[in-house]
Amino acid sequence: MEPAVEAGLNSISAESLSHIFSFLSPADLAAAACTHSAWRLAVGQEEGLWGALCESRFSLTSPTSPEGTPLPGFKAAFGAWHSAFGRYGQLAARALRAWRLIETWTGEHFPPVAASLRPGASEALLDAVEAELGVKLCPALRVLYRVHDGQELEFDRQVDKQRTAMHESVFHGMFGGYAFYNHMVSTRMLPLRRLVRWTRTAHTQLGFPAGDQRVLIAASHNFGKMIYCSASDGMVRVASVDKSTCLDAVPAGDGACDGVLRWFEAYAEALSAGRFAVEALELEYAESRSISLFPQLQPWCSQAVTEGVRVEGCPLFIPELTQASDPEPSYFFAYSIRFSLLPEQEQQRLMGTLAGPRDGVPLPSVQLRSRHWVIRDGSGAVESEVRGEAVVGMYPLLIAGEPRFAYQSCTHQKAASGSMEGNFKFVEGSLSQPGREFDVSCARFNLVVPDVVF
Predict the structure, then answer these.
(1) Are 231 and 149 in the same domain?
(2) Which part of the chain is the ApaG domain (predicted)?
(3) I need a surface site. Which of 1, 54, 121, 347 has the fewest CB within 10 A?
């Protein structure tokens, strides 16, 4: 190397080198390290540089191996993770980020699900699954299983032993659930050994055609809900009411065969954003705590406050009860209606508005008497109206500031879009000692098949 060039290279400060190297890819860093001894030393010792690469490529914030073993530094960690996940390129970064969101959220809000996540599957195990099923799994699905091999739940172990007693882990499905009337779902991610078993069972019992590429990746405890990934194109599809016909659960992509990863990312982001919450699916069964897919946030749900009474309308598309392939399709929706009476101080702040108490005096209690629903089609035209006493046979009594009351019901429609709105008659005080009767609005909520179905 020319002396002038050598001197110029040596004159670059360590701080400047670190800044320059931060823009380089790992391959370019390796090339830079081969260029000059000082650069090789800088590349090897710059922990901040390798730490940033570990975080951006592998969502890694501490120097550990993929197996969780502590390593001496981020450069060593990058090497270990690149060896394990490098073949997946950007798919690995996306999968790991989504998994970190799920790990963090479940660890904070629902530890039983976090504890149920299995260690990642090996490449050899994934190859064996492909050989057993006779399909080639798309890289987007493989990389998801490389991070975590689904869930290990006690009720599955009981099924293995041919025991059928209900266990609370039935409600610990990572992909959430819901319940209304006698229909209950909590969808777990199947580990690979169960994926193979239940994929074969589905193909045999449901009469899938030869060469069908559907792989069952998630299901509820009784297989009332079944979610597949197509090995041929990476799309996620969910079984409809006849079990063999499936609905797309994510929009078609640009040919990247990453539909399963886009679906998984959408779920992780919705979970992390607070769209879903942990609550009992069955009011009379405290152990039924689950990730509820009835939405908690607008615009996925509606909210209105009338004279201190808050009403939230939270709709949910139910694919496993939908029949979209018939000449006369039927799209099935459930909805959760949540009532609460605002604390008296909050009622006082709303005085003088429609949301506050009419007579200027906060209401300590109110009780529901009847309901009135208006159901519209996609154009906004009224299809039907429903009037009746109570809600699912109950007359909830609301006390100011106390936890909300919620009930679930369902409806179906001929098209993929529609809406519901209505009002509820309440009395001040209680039905046993009724005061003034007044109407409480439920703002319109949409009954629309979403682009992404969970």
Answers:
(1) yes
(2) 303-454
(3) 1
Same domain, 83 and 96: no
Residue 111 and residue 255 in one domain:
yes
Of 65, 89, 113, the domain-final residue: 89
Other CB atoms within 10 Å distance of the CB of residue 231:
22
Write the CA distances from 119 to 82, 147, 191, 262, 446, integer angstroms.
Answer: 18, 7, 10, 22, 40
Q: Helices marked H in 118-249 — which ranges?
A: 123-133, 139-147, 154-160, 192-205
101 shares a domain with 210: yes
Q: What are phi and psi of 352, to 5 degrees?
A: 90, 0
Cα–Cα distance between 265 and 96 in angstroms, integer? 10
CB 307 within 8 A of CB 355: yes
Count, residues in the chain: 454
CA distance 244 to 216: 12
Give me the phi and psi of 55, to 5 degrees please. Answer: -70, -45
E-strand stretches of 281-356: 289-292, 302-306, 309-317, 331-341
Domain that residue 8 falls in:
3-89
Q: Phi and psi for 23 in degrees, rounded to 5?
A: -90, -5
Sign of CA dihedral 426, 430, 433, 436: negative
Burial letters 376-396, b for 16+ CB under 10 A, else e? bbbeeeebeeeeeeebeeeeb
Q: Both 82 and 99 in a single domain?
A: no
pLDDT tens readout for residues 382-410? 999 999 999 999 999 999 999 999 999 99
Looking at residue 359, the DSSP 8-state letter turns out to be T
Straight-line distance from the first to the last Cα atom of the chain, in angstroms, rounded to the nearest whole number: 61
Give φ, ψ of 121 to 5 degrees.
-80, 150
**Looking at the DSSP assignment, which residues form a beta bridge with residue 313?**
302, 337
pLDDT tens-digit profile of 317-359?
A: 999 999 988 889 999 999 999 999 999 999 999 999 999 999 8
Supply the Cα-derived Rg of the chain in whole angstroms: 27
Kindly state whether residue 288 falls inside one of the protein's structural domains: no
Q: Are residues 124 and 174 in the same domain?
A: yes
Q: Say whether 225 sits in a helix, a strand or coil.
A: coil
Question: What are the φ/ψ torsions at residue 85 (nearest 5 degrees)?
Answer: -120, 0
DSSP string for residues in 6-68: HHHHHTS-HHHHHHHHTTS-HHHHHHHHTT-HHHHHHHHH-HHHHHHHHHHHH---S-B-TTS
* Same domain for 299 and 255: no
- For residue 269, the SS3 value is helix
